[in-house]
Amino acid sequence: MISRMSSLFLRTLRDDPADAEVASHRLLVRAGYVRRAAPGIYSWLPLGLRVLRNVEGIIREEMDAMGAQELQFPALLPKEPYEASNRWTEYGDGLFRLQDRKGADYLLGPTHEEMFTLAVKDLYSSYKDLPVWLYQIQTKYRDEARPRAGILRGREFVMKDSYSFDTTDAGLEDSYLAHRDAYVRIFDRLGFDYAVVKATSGAMGGSRSEEFLAKADAGEDTYVRCTSCDYAANVEAVTTRPPAPTAYDGLPAAHAEKTPDTPTIATLVDVLNADHPRDDRPWTAGDTLKNVLVVLKHPDGTREPVAIGLPGDREVDQKRLDGQLEPIEVEPMDEEEIRRHPTLVKGYVGPGVLGEENASGIRYLVDPRVAEGTRWVTGADVAGSHVLDLVAGRDFTADGTIEAAEVRDGDPCPVCDDGSLETARGIEMGHIFALGTKYAEALGLQVLDEIGKLTTVTMGSYGIGVSRAVAAVAEGNHDELGLVWPREISPYDLHVVATGKDEAVFEAAEELVRELSGAGLSVLYDDRRKVSPGVKFKDAELVGVPSIVTVGRGLADGVVELKDRRSGERSDVPVGEAVARLTEVVRKG
Amino acid sequence: MISRMSSLFLRTLRDDPADAEVASHRLLVRAGYVRRAAPGIYSWLPLGLRVLRNVEGIIREEMDAMGAQELQFPALLPKEPYEASNRWTEYGDGLFRLQDRKGADYLLGPTHEEMFTLAVKDLYSSYKDLPVWLYQIQTKYRDEARPRAGILRGREFVMKDSYSFDTTDAGLEDSYLAHRDAYVRIFDRLGFDYAVVKATSGAMGGSRSEEFLAKADAGEDTYVRCTSCDYAANVEAVTTRPPAPTAYDGLPAAHAEKTPDTPTIATLVDVLNADHPRDDRPWTAGDTLKNVLVVLKHPDGTREPVAIGLPGDREVDQKRLDGQLEPIEVEPMDEEEIRRHPTLVKGYVGPGVLGEENASGIRYLVDPRVAEGTRWVTGADVAGSHVLDLVAGRDFTADGTIEAAEVRDGDPCPVCDDGSLETARGIEMGHIFALGTKYAEALGLQVLDEIGKLTTVTMGSYGIGVSRAVAAVAEGNHDELGLVWPREISPYDLHVVATGKDEAVFEAAEELVRELSGAGLSVLYDDRRKVSPGVKFKDAELVGVPSIVTVGRGLADGVVELKDRRSGERSDVPVGEAVARLTEVVRKG
């Protein structure tokens, strides 16, 4: 297969597009892979389409290999199934909605849980039919508030979405892990440096969930990872490693002290260091236990007052708190609500009155660091007083723990002993999700089990951003001169450049290109006659085919030049051996 | 490649879907190829998607082979380019329109003339860049008033659309013919019995245009074809073969006669036969020349009175008339307008006052049958009188001819001497169209010509209904038992059925299937253990893979049975030769 630069529908640009924020966007536009049609909506020019198809091909191969079956749902979908799942409303402004000529409501599919659920309901009726894994590679639509970075976050994009259907939790676990394995193979083949990040469930409900993030400074997603092991998680999903319970036999008894004018942790620490200095080290905010009062709004409408106890040197991370409690909503407790609990002394609330067994009747949840045997300075439930040497497990017991405190760089890794956590950025390339029964329940997908009883099917949903992968690979594979494609998704195997004005050069190049094509390689051949070698080489670097072959001056010595786009290494190849050598270079990857 | 019936996402249906109007719809649903998601919107199940991909593959191969370049535009498109071409309005209710979260107007692309035009404008600037042929295979949207017949006329459908860009009419002609040749190859490979039908321009404006119609009684499109040669045309595009001019030396002079009470052609014919009998044969309506008065409404708003003269035995075909005059609109001349022309005597209008040179000043266009030397009875421009023996070319001359008369079965073929026209029905599979400069003008696509002057580019547009082709092939390839796919688009090369309860049969079938797959064939393997042979064979007939291989009883004699789905022919194949023989059967097509 040969494309000729003289006729290829391509014009490279010397200048960056005005709206390009990231390297992949800049280079994919400049090198003629994509063009913007509207905000977040792009056209794929011939080079871009070839890369997109290669990415699709890798994904399709691996999905087929794992035993998933491909089908294709419409993008234009009727409202009803999305009303049944409540996503018609839940999706908010992110959903493109429209009406047909008869006024019936439709949407452009953002993902297809509903349609797959209905398809399985339509065709299957017995546990014997399951598990089944179905997928599609399809154009999807989301009306992003801020489409950005070219095809990295578009409003029309190509996605591979698959769905697993099982009758048992163990089956769902197997389906989930099978997808996880396939995703590892896919992202390895796509040439990504990626992290598998534990995720919270997000708006979709459900339980186990991981994201595959391509490591990239341009990424929109923040996560934390261990400096030592391969632990990685969304901030919402990070678990805190609690200190081991320690014995508290020798600790002094708790004692309340006057701490006037200490409305903040900082003022409290100053008073402690002034009035109650410690022998070993000064008091710090981390020695104090602050109790944050909130109200939980349950889905059934009831309101529940709760206190959250956490070390005084950490703030509550609202996203982590929300993630823990979803679908319950959380808001700060207001003055009026506080006044309704007369035992609460604002600014001086302590465990003495908290916990459902205690005076306030308010449920008391604490950070995992507030572990048995830890010693705290905290409110004495009397204005202007704090309790010192209050020991968890001896002097108070919480009703439970909660992961609500902010995560900081340097926090210990929850998994290994050596590492600490650090913040990193990435591009979400894939998401695997043990959905559970949400959609099956909403749409009535049940099958007969072994004893002839109807059982609700449990589902997993698994996505890969296909068009986004093109940008993400570009983001991770470029230099200042242009793109540097991994071999398996490069638009062509070879970029052959004929230089000079000698007709013999073009004849030799033409012959070589035909032989390479005959050997099954795809070749981009720069056959332009009136373009300088400098421009041709610049275009070749920009376009980013991994091997560049120059047919030019060396021909007099019977050689062509092979350049590795990534390393820049050059070597001469005798013309007679060129087809064999180049085929070998391409095949060995 | 092996798919197993035991796990394939497929359930065949014994009953026809309630809404199925045509065989292809009925069978594609029953055999598990497609499922309806909404009116005119279908999901592609695994079998259907394989056929769709095969059709796409054939089209892609031929488009690439002709030198067209593939790219991909969005389906979700901004309004502005479609406003510039006026299609935002012209398309009427057929366009799916929507707004994004910011209230900006978008549409779902019905075809992409505008986007391709803008892409060429974006990238190219010189005549040296042209011609260029670009195509995409893409999901398209039209809000059909009456979606019908399953995927035959859907609202979401897959289409191949290509566009040619040239600087000269001769270049456009070459581009048009290159597409025509490619289409012939494509439709031949798809196994269609088709007609290439001359078409009028339709709503798109422009000149030369042909449709590729698959011959099918279920087709929505009517056309006429010659019983003898391969002439075929839309009714709008049929040209009338005029009689050869004849000498009129010996004919009697024209003479006006009283013809009282002859408000209709029929009454006139009666009076003629009663009062002016002919020697050789009775008068018929075809001997009379009727003159129909209309008003042309030009796009610039001016109104022009015109008379259309045609043999009295034919009505004006409004579609043919509209097709001839587009974008001019035509309406009957009303009483008031007639009164404004005092020389016109209603019911007795004749050529004596018509023609721009004559008394009425009304332009006079005649049917091609009103040729020089033909003799007519027509209005004498006096109430109650007609002129007899009025000879065209001798007694009157029209301002021109027009194809406005109805076409009838039996009319002589305009091309060959032997044939006559007959009406036929078909499914529009492809449309090729020499568009001209409409879109280039609307969107400002100009390039520099050889002398450095800006010249407007001239375009062709060429479509193939890809998803429709799946239905149309099914429509033309089925019997009472099910589908019968042509080899090149069949979902699998072979359908292997293992029958009986003998484990050895399943082992032998498994081995055979693996070897066939290893030889590069795709196999649908019916490995179901608890399903009767009868059901398996019924499913195989319904699914329609062209070769069905049964591994069963014959195994004891060392043979498997090969059945040709189309002919029903059966033959035994020794197990040892099965892979070689079956590969040969598949490869020879």
Automatic annotation (TrEMBL), chains A, B:
HAMAP family named in the record: Pro_tRNA_synth_type1
Presence of keyword NADP: no
Gene Ontology MF, one: proline-tRNA ligase activity
Catalysed transformations (reactions): tRNA(Pro) + L-proline + ATP = L-prolyl-tRNA(Pro) + AMP + diphosphate
Subunit text: Homodimer.
Keywords (A to Z) from UniProt: Aminoacyl-tRNA synthetase, ATP-binding, Cytoplasm, Ligase, Nucleotide-binding, Protein biosynthesis
Name of the protein in its database record: Proline--tRNA ligase
Gene3D superfamilies hit by this protein: Anticodon-binding domain (3.40.50.800), Bira Bifunctional Protein, Domain 2 (3.30.930.10), YbaK/aminoacyl-tRNA synthetase-associated domain (3.90.960.10)
Major subcellular site: cytoplasm
Subcellular location: Cytoplasm
One BP term from GO: prolyl-tRNA aminoacylation
One Pfam assignment: HGTP_anticodon
CDD domains associated with the record: ProRS_anticodon_short (cd00861), ProRS_core_prok (cd00779)
Role summary: Catalyzes the attachment of proline to tRNA(Pro) in a two-step reaction: proline is first activated by ATP to form Pro-AMP and then transferred to the acceptor end of tRNA(Pro). As ProRS can inadvertently accommodate and process non-cognate amino acids such as alanine and cysteine, to avoid such errors it has two additional distinct editing activities against alanine. One activity is designated as 'pretransfer' editing and involves the tRNA(Pro)-independent hydrolysis of activated Ala-AMP.
Residue span, Aminoacyl-transfer RNA synthetases class-II family profile domain: 35-486
EC number: 6.1.1.15
GO CC annotations, alphabetized: cytosol
Record note on domains: Consists of three domains: the N-terminal catalytic domain, the editing domain and the C-terminal anticodon-binding domain.
Family: Belongs to the class-II aminoacyl-tRNA synthetase family. ProS type 1 subfamily.
Class of the enzyme per the UniProt entry, highest EC level: ligase
Native organism taxonomy: Bacteria, Bacillati, Actinomycetota, Actinomycetes, Propionibacteriales
